[in-house]
Known about the structure:
Blueprint: H1 2-22, H2 28-42, H3 55-79, H4 87-116, H5 121-147, H6 155-166
Amino acid sequence: FIGAAGLRDIGLQLQSLLHAAQNPVSGLGAFFKLAVIALRRTSKPTIPVQSPLLHNEAQRLGRSIRHFAFCILRLLAKYREAVVDEQLELNRIAESAMSLYTVTAVLGKIDQELQTAPDEKSRLSRDVAIARFYCNYALDKLDISLGSLFAHNRDTEMRSLSETLTGGRIQ
């Protein structure tokens, strides 16, 4: 559900872009507006952290957000409206979105703590180590999920096994 719901808005925008491209004269304004939106969504965001201790994780999060955006566009281009039936791919998107969300939350929380309680060095150094580990662990999982969207997965085998066991087809 998370994956399908999250893809809805961008899918509608891409559909509008496709319609504008088919009528370039009348849809030039809409085409330009949607092209700008698409470029913004695929640019690498800057993750604003104050602490230099979190700089590497913030940079990696920005790269991961950009990679996620490109994968979403590629998935929508491949399946179009039928993407809602591709449960294995949607699960990977949902897992990736949750990783992005939790890493953002962890970085925000620990960065704020570093700014508001700099005198608690011993406790904060432990918390920073935990936060950095979690961020890298979650982003590693995201890389695996996104990497297996289009290759290096066992989807065909899983679908075949499902048909054998249930007599039906999973998407």
